[in-house]
Amino acid sequence: MFAVHLMAFYFTKLKEDQIKKVDRFLYHMRLSDETLLDIMARFQAEMQKGLGKDTNPTASVKMLPTFVRAIPDGSENGEFLSLDLGGSKFRVLKVQVSEEGKRNVQMESQFYPTPNEIIRGNGTELFEYVADCLADFMKTKELTQKKLPLGLTFSFPCKQTKLEEGVLLSWTKKFKARGVQGTDVVSSLTNAMRKYKDLDVDILALVNDTVGTMMTCAYDDPYCEVGVIIGTGTNACYMEDMSNIELVEGDEGRMCINTEWGAFGDDGALEDIRTEFDQELDLGSLNPGKQLFEKMISGLYLGELVRLILLKMAKAGLLFGGEKSSALHIKGKIETRHVAAMEKYKEGLANTREILTDLGLEPSEADCVAVQHVCTIVSFRSANLCAAALAAILTRLRENKKLVRLRTTVGMDGTLYKIHPQYPKRLHKVVRKLVPNCDVRFLLSESGSTKGAAMVTAVASRVQAQRKQIDKVLALFRLTREQLVGIRDKMRVELEYGLKRDTHPLATVKMLPTYVCGMPDGTEKGKFLALDLGGTNFRVLLVKIRSGRRSVRMYNKIFTIPLEIMQGTGEELFDHIVQCIADFLDYMGLKGAQLPLGFTFSFPCRQASIDKGTLIEWTKGFKATDCEGEDVVDMLREAIKRRNEFDLDIVAVVNDTVGTMMTCGYEDRNCEVGLIAGTGSNMCYMEEMRNIELVEGDEGKMCINTEWGGFGDNGCLDDIRTQYDKEVDEGSLNPGKQRYEKMTSGMYLGEIVRQILIDLTKQGLLFRGRISERLRTRGIFETKFLSQIESDRLALLQVRKILQQLGLDSTCEDSIVVKEVCGAVSRRAAELYGAGLAAVVEKRREDQGFEHLKITVGVDGTLYKLHPHFSRILQETVKELAPRCDVTFMLSEDGSGKGAALITAVAKRLQQARREN
Ligand code: BG6
Ligand code: BG6
Ligand code: GLC
Ligand code: GLC
């Protein structure tokens, strides 16, 4: 009995002595709570640094955005392939995520070796090897005939700009294949798979193993928002608020951040706790100076740390009676599994003896106790450090959510965590001590990270399918060069039709003679009134033209025309106009003045002279009754008479295109075309009199108002008109009319966009499938909004803000789609304009028999002026479709009022000349 007690006493004493000895020797590895709190605070600062746009480049903890935005919601389904590369084992898997609401995942997998010559050889060979394994797997599982989406778990730091791309920042752990760093892993693997012609695999997602782990666990526990790996390497990811991720646009919702915490300390932040053993281990590693935190923690390094310590202790005579075995000198001889075995609760000591003996040592009882304690200190330090960093993440989550207490789940994986007998318990305990205000559940990922990767892939494949639907819609608006050439040629035919007496009555492009026969010659002078009706603004102007100097002074006032007047009776409309003139004269102090007036009236009018214009039909937003078929000059005169306050001499009625051409022609004599890309769409140009069969005479030229907005009204554009164009047409004031205008001008582009958005929403591809009242409202997308949305300088957030102002509650993804839709619609408009204009300038070139034509086009209209890309695309298209014409575009700065006044001046001069004769 006494002997037993004595033995026990002896052993306890021995144990105490050994532990004390080791503790003394490794005191630097034992971290106090205070130190851990300090490390936790440092890691919090590191995270902040990694998230900041300006600070990220120099941050050692990279905080990589993963483009994984949500945890699984159970709606994921389908069959996926998965690769899991970078941990201790390389696996290929098939994952079946089942439908019908039941959370059910089935996996079949196959392990493949990763020989050193492959993972440290040539990058191309590494990817070929991976492709070979995948091909082998598919063959054995009879999957070759299927097109399957693939999720790639790739457990290295990758910079992502989207889910299906990842540029390797640096190899870590055991890998070091050449020529891979700085390149996109997904495309390398895709390329490598090309050699297998019968494999149809689409890599839809690249995820880090931490992300895969988090997603795997989140599939079972929706509280899971952190993923931690303590295996060959160590790392963590967590869900961060988008508003804190400065490297990714958008501030809505959350995105998973791969912290790459293994690199914590690479900038020297942990020097105070690193020991000589850490330094020595680092120097002998594949990546010296890198992953310093990882090297104090993870499975690849723990055994080695123990070996280095034992060696040093033996050298110092503290172990094995000062004897060292040669095996103890060999790098990698002690592995993490040994450390785990030595720390086993009951068999630990026996295991230690066996392991040391295998190393060629002859350990005493005391040695075994000491070595076991060395292991404990090393693995305890590992758990402590992990706990400190994890505590920092949990605190961040809690603060992001502004909670007093956080309830959360951490998904865990990695061999060290899984096989070490004490590790999980220690880690959990320390975490709970460091963050007492978090209720943390640790959930072991039983099925590795692939299940989670499949979830991410499932979401990506749904997004891809949606993307395809969106692309299908946008493709309807893409015109090929052949189509554009076809449109140019059709326009040319229509121009000829409208000019010919026989075909004119049926022509849809009306080619209206304007009786404007020459450009201003600079001798014009006098004071004129001008009206400018039909564009965005109604204006009354006073224009003073000074002869000789080609200078003009203008005063104008903008008036609004209320909708009920635009669409009321003709009398009301003209009375309103006269009221505005009266106000203007009053305002200018010109009451009673009898001035010649030029009337810019931007609607199709049949003219028999410069001062007569019968409105053929209203276009755009006007629909006043009793005007069509009437002479608008007469209507204006009668309204003036009705008011009986002043008299005006209405000398000319001009279309806005003509006014624009004149405005520009005053400065550039080459200007023979006037183009409006505004509320409406139209063009005028100088035509040879001999071609104008409707007007007597063959000499000289006359301006023709083409009214090309009606192009296509005979169905000749039906092959490119989309269902959206038809819907816009049907909802317009003049269904069936002005089809080209409705595909090109400001008043309708926004409407086309709105129709597309409604359709995409119906298909569940936008605005969470909800069609709001605002979206049902006609006219919300004015040209100015389209122009703003498409501005390149605008960040996504600003686009979202504009949409919000329009009453559309959009996510950032929605905003991207809306911007694309706007882009497709406005591009088509600009190209159609270009095709139309090419027809005209080509006609002019041919008619004059020129090899090359130099011509200036005067342009006006809010679409042309405000839109960021419209003018460029229009110009490029003209160049492409009329290569022999050198077209200069001249923006009309002063509007068409000036041109109208100039026309009036010329007409007045001719009038007087006639009278004098
Ligand atoms: C596995 C995961 O379970 O754990 C891998 O499927 C991950 O994706 C690995 O890389 C990490 O642990 P270890 O110990 O294999 O590096
Ligand atoms: C103005 C002209 O500058 O542009 C008007 O003065 C013309 O005559 C108008 O109708 C066209 O653009 P919008 O965009 O106002 O229809
Ligand atoms: C290394 C890798 C990291 C990975 C971790 C665990 O730290 O850099 O991406 O998550 O190992 O496998
Ligand atoms: C409409 C009108 C046309 C005008 C154009 C631009 O197409 O019919 O006359 O020039 O809009 O305002």
UniProtKB/TrEMBL annotation:
<dbReference type="GO" id="GO:0005536">
    <property type="term" value="F:D-glucose binding"/>
</dbReference>
<dbReference type="GO" id="GO:0005524">
    <property type="term" value="F:ATP binding"/>
</dbReference>
<keyword id="KW-0067">ATP-binding</keyword>
<comment type="pathway">
    <text>Carbohydrate metabolism; hexose metabolism.</text>
</comment>
<keyword id="KW-0808">Transferase</keyword>
<dbReference type="GO" id="GO:0006096">
    <property type="term" value="P:glycolytic process"/>
</dbReference>
<dbReference type="InterPro" id="IPR001312">
    <property type="entry name" value="Hexokinase"/>
</dbReference>
<keyword id="KW-0677">Repeat</keyword>
<keyword id="KW-0472">Membrane</keyword>
<dbReference type="InterPro" id="IPR019807">
    <property type="entry name" value="Hexokinase_BS"/>
</dbReference>
<dbReference type="GO" id="GO:0005829">
    <property type="term" value="C:cytosol"/>
</dbReference>
<dbReference type="GO" id="GO:0005741">
    <property type="term" value="C:mitochondrial outer membrane"/>
</dbReference>
<keyword id="KW-0496">Mitochondrion</keyword>
<dbReference type="GO" id="GO:0008865">
    <property type="term" value="F:fructokinase activity"/>
</dbReference>
<keyword id="KW-0418">Kinase</keyword>
<keyword id="KW-0963">Cytoplasm</keyword>
<keyword id="KW-1000">Mitochondrion outer membrane</keyword>
<dbReference type="GO" id="GO:0006006">
    <property type="term" value="P:glucose metabolic process"/>
</dbReference>
<comment type="similarity">
    <text>Belongs to the hexokinase family.</text>
</comment>
<keyword id="KW-0547">Nucleotide-binding</keyword>
<feature type="domain" description="Hexokinase N-terminal">
    <location>
        <begin position="22"/>
        <end position="219"/>
    </location>
</feature>
<comment type="pathway">
    <text>Carbohydrate degradation; glycolysis; D-glyceraldehyde 3-phosphate and glycerone phosphate from D-glucose: step 1/4.</text>
</comment>
<dbReference type="Pfam" id="PF03727">
    <property type="entry name" value="Hexokinase_2"/>
</dbReference>
<dbReference type="InterPro" id="IPR043129">
    <property type="entry name" value="ATPase_NBD"/>
</dbReference>
<keyword id="KW-0324">Glycolysis</keyword>
<dbReference type="GO" id="GO:0004340">
    <property type="term" value="F:glucokinase activity"/>
</dbReference>
<dbReference type="GO" id="GO:0001678">
    <property type="term" value="P:intracellular glucose homeostasis"/>
</dbReference>
<feature type="domain" description="Hexokinase C-terminal">
    <location>
        <begin position="673"/>
        <end position="906"/>
    </location>
</feature>
<feature type="domain" description="Hexokinase C-terminal">
    <location>
        <begin position="226"/>
        <end position="459"/>
    </location>
</feature>
<dbReference type="InterPro" id="IPR022673">
    <property type="entry name" value="Hexokinase_C"/>
</dbReference>
<dbReference type="InterPro" id="IPR022672">
    <property type="entry name" value="Hexokinase_N"/>
</dbReference>
<dbReference type="Pfam" id="PF00349">
    <property type="entry name" value="Hexokinase_1"/>
</dbReference>
<protein>
    <recommendedName>
        <fullName>hexokinase</fullName>
        <ecNumber>2.7.1.1</ecNumber>
    </recommendedName>
</protein>
<keyword id="KW-0021">Allosteric enzyme</keyword>
<feature type="domain" description="Hexokinase N-terminal">
    <location>
        <begin position="470"/>
        <end position="666"/>
    </location>
</feature>
